[in-house]
Amino acid sequence: MRGFVPVLVFLLGLSPATPILTATATDAATDASPAVGPQYDTTHVYVAPGDFDRFVASFIATFGGNTTRRIELQVTPTPSKTLSQLVFTPVGNLSVFGFRTPIPYPFGTEHGGNLVTDMDQAIRQARAAGAATVVSTFPDQIGRDTVIQWPGGVNMQLYWHTTPPSYAPLQTIPESHVYLAPEQAGEFVQDFLRFSHGQIVSDDSDAPGIEIGRTNDTYRRIRLTSLFGRMTVLVTDGHLPYPYGRELTGYEVSDLKQTIDKAKAAGASVLAGPYIASDSQAAMLEFPGGYIAEVHAIAH
Fold first, then answer.
1. Among residues 263, 257, 265, which one has the least CA distance to residue 297?
2. What CATH number does the domain containing 18 carry?
3. What is the pTM assigned to this prediction?
4. Where are the strands (E) in the chain, listed by range?
5. Which tens digits make up the pLDDT trace of 232-284?
6. Is 202 within the bounds of a domain?
7. DSSP symbol at 35
8. Is residue 1 a part of any domain in this protein?
């Protein structure tokens, strides 16, 4: 289930006869991918200000890494105030927000932020691929931002820096998790691949349901790869036991037991697992402040 650089799409309840999707980067427009690299993509984590420092400390204690200085600023085009901090870890990076004011819509609904090489070109490519612009471009302290929406209501924030950042490569690439209805999966995959210039790595119609908390079921899993990194889109009938559907990202680690022990010592709790899922061991963790993450280690 892991080990290369995919976007994963899980389709539950589809017939084994459902045709395999074959969209690739060659189906897209000839423009280059707007992505810069997966180390420049961050999961957006929203926590209460009172939980902010506790969450960051717990996450760093679990995975290692470092942070930028915590600051307070406006990150939306309409008036608001939030604590903000970047968290860099070997398994994936976060943008953490602790709003002191109500959060303006639609912020808080996006999966994360993705750095692009050229904002105007990225928006044109996204619209040509089928995305809608739900928040038009606005300036921030270091560049420009926008929020786009893919079929199925998947929101994605794009950002561009006036001075290009330079982040260290990740040890393992995190997987963004997106849940969709079966009717929306094909359109989402086609549109996102066209935008990202990605490709399908595998298509499994009998993936084990334990990966979505459904031990006695199977479902279809499609793995994709792009310069944006991995994404796990789970397309289901909505019959999901808690906490499945609440996680935003899956993180690959070398030793799952050691990671779980570190997480628990740092104040996190285990919500599900550990369990065997395809070619890996996995568990669902909840960190202080309520952030839920899937963590997995490749079975060797």
1. 257
2. 3.10.180.10
3. 0.89
4. 6-11, 41-46, 66-67, 71-73, 82-88, 93-99, 112-115, 132-139, 143-150, 154-161, 175-180, 199-208, 218-225, 230-235, 249-252, 269-277, 280-286, 292-298
5. 888 888 899 999 999 999 999 999 999 999 999 999 999 999 999 878 999 99
6. yes
7. B
8. no
